[in-house]
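Dear colleagues,

I hope this message finds you well. In preparation for our joint manuscript, I am sending the Carboxypeptidase D (Raphidocelis subcapitata) sequence together with its predicted structure, so that both groups work from identical material. I would be grateful if you could confirm receipt.
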Amino acid sequence: MALSSGLWACLWLLAAAAAVPCAVAQEAAAQPKAAADAGSKPRATSSGGSGRLSDQLLKTYLSNEELVAWMTELVAKCSGNARKFSIGESTNGANIWALEISDRPGEPEAEPNFKYLANMHGDEPSGRMLLPMLAEWLCANNGKDPRATRLVRDAHLFLVPTMNPDGFAARRRNNANGVDLNRNFPDPILLAGEPADVLRRPQDDAEPETRAVMALGLERRYAASANLHEGAVVANYPFDGYPDRSSDVRGERNPTPDDATFVWLAKLYAAHHKTMAKSEEFPDGIVNGAQWYPVYSGMQDWNYVAAGTMAITLEVSDNKWRPAQDLPTLWEENREALVELPLAAMFGGVRGNVTAAGSGAPVGATLLVKISATPAAAAAAGASALPVPFYSEPRFGFFSRPLAPGRHTLVVRALGYEEAEVVVDVPSDGSGVVKGIELLPEQLSPGSLVPVIVAGSSDDDSSGGSGGGGSGDDSSGSDSGGSSSSGGSAAGLSTHHASLAAAGGPPKSRAALPILLAHGAVFAAIAGAWACQRFGWIAAIGGYRVRRLGSPPTSRFEV
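The corresponding structure tokens are as follows:
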């Protein structure tokens, strides 16, 4: 039927309003490509006529410029299975580069993610060799070694060889501002009682390197993460500090709710390392962070509580800055462990998809591993009584979580759906469990609020190796009992950590905001046009005259 002049005016005005966020989204989408074009040309290297940089990895420590050139070299030869991108810049303006290893790098998939970081302290450079050597091994053995094939084909592996390029160049621990980057993250113990989302935001004194790594850690869901250091040979796991915030060295553990799984992951790395598990100082080659010495504002605890990522710290050399002739030995000591850890973390626990019953639509959900002990019993054991959540991503509903062998109960929550509990039995052979979880819609009574999920997914907010943070590169156990927390704040939670179980759900990618604005504007235009016609709102150029017909809706929508 013919449209009234008032409706045409409404449509014209709403379309004009929609154009603004659409333009913002287009501009935001173009920025990473422009940054990639600007950063894709490596600076001159000092390798001269020495041939391929990959041949130098076990002979010398590559400079920052050589490391970037090596990444470009690897991407070119790795048959579409590698991508390099910048996650941000250092204090002195150097790009902090990352590699993504996968058969479909940069593309969202319902597959697990794992990340390795190294050289957080500038005078601990062994990871600048170990992570490139791991990438070379994966590239050379994909299709030959079943472990390499699985990591490339069925997962997305992210490698950041140097988090602190300025510190490396100056051969010192701290960054160019003199800040220890492993004391620069929001701390779940120090921030206990604050709104839980505070943990996901950089603090005012956050360094550029810290901000870049936080963005990388929040823009996709990681099953686990590991950070390579030097100064000992041990696998360190959370928590790093004590509830009373003391820095006294007590030799006492402060375990997390996921202590059994953290111990399992740390022992796995140590067992596959040539010497770590044989340590006389650290039984089984592992240690709880607080038990060793308390650390606050470290990256490990932040990854675990804020991002829902099972994170451990790997000390891989007793001495810092080992002589270059020791590099082949370092690689042989760590090679098997570097391969086995991500395999176990991504495939040895539980993975699957959360979907809506009936429709099969993917659901972005919050998941927790239920704790069997009563709060009093857990406190007596020294562990927090509140589980730390992890998340399925909205695009596919996919999740992946390391779990120690045994029986576990998962609690699954999502806005608009009934809470579900799922029991999983994780075998000890490393095969893990694949579990599809269906959620039933909430039963609503007349006049009740209808929750609407606004999923912040985009190509940069995905479980399966999405577009990365910063610029891309054109070279491309218990089964019952316990309780769960609710509420939107960390207030009243255990002082061991600020649980994010009900703090607005999973973290959202900042890159998704312009896309959400554009989609929202289109929806607003359609809905507004309907409202103009249905309720008789009349717009006239030169002024507005509003006439409302009918009564208000009988239900409201909560976003």
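For the figure legend, we might mention the following. The chain has twelve helices and 19 strands. The first strand starts at residue 82 and ends at 89.

With kind regards,
E.M.
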